[in-house]
Specification:
By secondary structure, this protein is of the alpha+beta class. The protein is built from 22 helices and 18 strands. It folds into three domains: about 190 residues, H-NOX domain (Alpha-Beta Complex), CATH 3.90.1520; about 220 residues, 4-Layer Sandwich (Phosphatase 2c, domain 1); about 140 residues, Serine Threonine Protein Phosphatase 5, Tetratricopeptide repeat (Alpha Horseshoe), CATH 1.25.40.10. Helix 14 runs antiparallel to helix 15, helix 16 runs parallel beside helix 18 and helix 20 packs parallel to helix 22.
Length: about 650
């Protein structure tokens, strides 16, 4: 039945189907192909149709006798075939060396180039490769008039020049080719004289002659086309599976990246100095997210808690338990580490249901530098005594957190006294259980030997030295576990630090800001991460007019402590003095959110809004100031400034 009743009448359709020499207009052809492409992709069919057309029509291009011709000679006869097939386009051939030729298809002026012609013509050139049994060849479109070809461009060519005057293809091949000739023979029935050709290695001799039955070649070509379509369908299915898999992988990667960023926020990059105790850490997760975890917890001003944990397993489940651990250690700030462990063990049992556990070492540093610690199935701390220059593994044991209901009975408190220069190292078993390329374990003894070599090094230099040696030891092997090494040291220069700090505070109290800055600078060089000194130094610099250096110090301070009203207020002042009014606004708004009844901050905000020309915000701040203190002496001039701004508007 006629599938195009709205496009062509039944009689014309019947003639198309019966008579291969029946001509139709380009307009009708375009409408019919357009109709078909609404329901299926015909690109592959058009390509194979072009191949079959060349194979079936090549017989008529051969010499009438049995003269053999090469592929180059047949190529230059293809324009004859094009003239027989269509009146819309003519073909020019240009040789490009002995094994290459350019095919230039140019449309007549009254016809419009079509996308399906580009595919059909390329399929015809593929017919040459079939006839001459080419093993290595390429057919690349190099130019086209079309800007929007309806197939993937790479199917036609890698570097197509669009918007050209014609369609151009480069056909290249390698190696020796056969010679082709016409034959009146049929390999099955000598009386049946249909299209049979002979291929031969030589132009004249009978060496390696083969008979080509065009019908068989076409039938085989169609079988291959069907097989190719089935294969393409299978490939498309695989592509869809691959696409779905890639989507899931991207989703997982996105989730892992999010988890990594969240965990990054849970684990401090740097632990600030505390009362002369300095910290440094090395942290290397095996995967995107880690089961290792460390943190610090201030206990008002007289104590600091430090914890290192190693959660069972890796990846997201382990990272989930590390997040729980942070919450639990923040909630349970008990006077004894063992008491903290008892509470956390019960909580983890309820929350995780024995689906994971954590080893842990928890250290409380007291104001007199006495350390109280407890261990839950974790590697024991290593203490380096500056006086003896020896490293010692400390005592202690206890079971995992979150695994056994009666685990609380195993936790014990132990203590030691830090002296100036002493260092304490907390670590996970990823350090000691790592192996080199011959299976040798890093071990505790090697770690202790390295620690003893850090005598003249700061705690930061000590951690870096140990990790460099560890990396060299494990060179060429994949990490088997997450790695964490945290060190703390009571500064050997603590008395000197205290002297400089006391002199700085005295100079500041009498408004001698220059001397105060000099003394704070010396104290800061000794303990560069001691936050109270950093803030005081930044404040002294701001008062002395050194706004740039003050800004640098206060920005670093605010990375550690985001909730200090004073640091944001002073930083806002420095920005204001440097004419960074937008930044000043941000800092003063933070200060206001931490201390919303402070009139001076509101006054400063009003000033910065005046500088920024934000009239309505300036009015709003002024009104809030009046509610807090109607007689505040600075309100009246602010109101006048605000009114003048309105007048200017």
């Amino acid at each position: 039945m006629n599938p195009f009743p709205e496009i062509v009448d039944d009689v014309t359709y019947s003639r198309i189907m019966r008579d291969p020499n029946f001509w139709i207009s380009q307009e009708l052809e375009d409408r019919m192909i357009g109709f078909i492409t609404q329901t299926m992709d015909v690109s592959g069919l058009l390509y194979h149709l072009g191949t079959e057309t060349l194979i079936t029509q090549a017989y008529d291009l051969l010499p009438l006798d049995d003269t053999r011709i090469s592929i180059n000679e047949l190529i230059h006869r293809i324009p004859i075939l094009i003239n027989r097939l269509t009146r819309t386009v003519f073909l020019n051939i240009q040789n490009h060396g002995p094994n290459a030729a350019y095919f230039l298809f140019e449309y007549h002026s009254r016809y419009v180039e079509k996308w399906y012609d580009a595919i059909f013509f390329q399929g015809m050139l593929n017919g040459l490769s079939v006839l001459f049994a080419l093993k290595e060849y390429s057919i690349q479109m190099t130019k086209t008039k079309l800007f929007g070809i309806h197939v993937v461009h790479k199917d036609l060519g890698e570097n197509i020049q669009f918007g050209s005057d014609a369609n151009e293809y480069l056909f290249e091949w390698k190696g020796d080719t056969f010679f082709l000739s016409r034959s009146t023979l049929n390999k099955d029935d000598l009386s049946n004289r249909h299209k049979v050709m002979i291929t031969a290695k030589s132009e004249t001799t009978s060496e390696e002659i083969s008979i080509i039955d065009v019908n068989e070649v076409v039938n085989r070509s169609r079988e291959l086309a069907i097989e190719n379509r089935d294969l393409e369908a299978a490939v498309e299915v695989l592509k869809s599976f691959k696409f779905e898999l890639e989507k899931k992988q991207l989703s997982i990667a996105k989730d892992l990246k999010l988890a990594k960023n969240i965990q990054k926020g849970l684990i401090p990059q740097i632990i600030p100095d505390w009362k002369g105790v300095q910290f440094w850490s090395a942290y290397s997760p095996m995967q995107e997210v880690s089961g290792d975890y460390y943190d610090y917890f201030p206990f008002s001003s007289d104590r600091l808690g430090v914890v290192v944990c190693d959660v069972s397993g890796h990846g997201v489940p382990a990272a989930f338990i590390t997040a729980l651990s942070k919450m639990l250690f923040s909630n349970y700030k008990k006077a004894k580490p063992s008491e903290t462990f008892k509470h956390i063990n019960r909580e983890l049992l309820d929350l995780v249901k024995q689906q994971g556990y954590s080893t842990c070492v928890y250290v409380l540093i007291e104001e007199d530098y006495r350390i109280v610690y407890s261990i839950a199935g974790h590697p024991r701390p290593i203490l380096y005594r500056a006086r003896t220059k020896k490293a010692e593994i400390q005592e202690g044991e206890g079971t995992f957190l979150g695994m056994f209901p009666d685990g609380g009975e195993t936790y014990r408190d132990h203590s030691l006294q830090l002296e100036p220069g002493d260092k304490l190292f907390l670590y996970t078993d990823g350090i000691t259980e790592a192996e080199n390329d011959v299976g040798e374990v890093f071990g505790e003894e090697r770690l202790m030997a390295l620690i003893e070599k850090t005598d003249q090094r700061t705690i930061q230099e000590s951690i870096d030295f140990i990790m460099a040696a560890h990396k060299e030891f494990t060179m060429g092997t994949d990490p088997m576990d997450d790695i964490t090494l945290l060190g703390l040291q009571l500064s050997p220069r603590l008395p000197e630090f205290n002297e400089h700090k006391a002199r700085a505070e005295k100079s500041y109290s009498i408004k001698n800001f220059k001397d105060a800055c000099d003394e704070y600078q010396k104290a800061y060089e000794i303990l560069p991460r001691e936050l109270n000194t950093q803030l005081a130094y930044g404040r002294a610099l701001a008062n002395s007019g050194n706004f740039s250096k003050a800004t640098s110090l206060l920005e670093a301070y605010n990375k550690f402590k985001t909730n200090n009203y004073l640091s944001h207020a002073i930083l806002g002042y420095c920005y204001y003095k440097e004419s960074h009014f937008e930044k000043a606004e941000v800092e003063w708004k933070k200060a206001h959110s931490l201390n919303d009844d402070n009139l001076s901050i509101l006054f400063n905000l009003a000033k910065v809004y005046h500088k920024l020309g934000k009239k309505s915000k300036m009015k709003d701040v002024t009104e809030r100031m009046k509610k807090l203190e109607s007689n505040y002496k600075s309100i009246l001039p602010l109101e006048k400034k605000w009114e003048s701004m309105l007048d200017e508007q």
